[in-house]
Amino acid sequence: MSVDDDKLDMQDIKDFLFPGSDSADMQAEIDALKADLEAATKEKLYALAELENFRNRSNRIAAEEKKYASIELMRELLPIWDNIHRALEAADKTHDVDSLISGIQIVADQFVNVFEKHGCKRILALHTPFDPNVHESIAMQPSDDFEPNTVLHETQAGFKLHDRVVRPSQVVLAISPPSK
After folding, report:
1. Of 65, 79, 98, 125, most Cβ neighbours within 10 A?
2. What is the pLDDT of residue 102?
3. Model-wide pTM > 0.90
């Protein structure tokens, strides 16, 4: 092949780029590379399909776990529900107020135990300084006995689940009494 030739054919270009190789060897190499590319493409598609199946399976499992996450809590609350109904039945049959109050106190203690077992604790509010993170002020009342912004009364108990407020305590705050 000379540089002065006006026309170059494909064979001349192959000979120039790949000296010493014949056309059959090059075609075999091209076919092998095509086969490798096809195999790699199939592996990639298979891996992507497996990844998608894994994601779907994980999402399905997570959704099911979330759906039934509170089943143990429900199992622990059911005996308390039973005891409330027993107390109501006993109230219909007897007029012994002391034993009824005692039974209700036992049920209340059962609630506290289940709540605490699951990390849900009552927010202590009475006679503490007002904290807007855990208290909701619903009224103010003059008081000589407590500093302003101290909780005088708790009208509804508040609860935390671990460190997150489930429900703030509804409270009545002390304010300075009016000047005389």
Report:
1. 125
2. 86
3. no
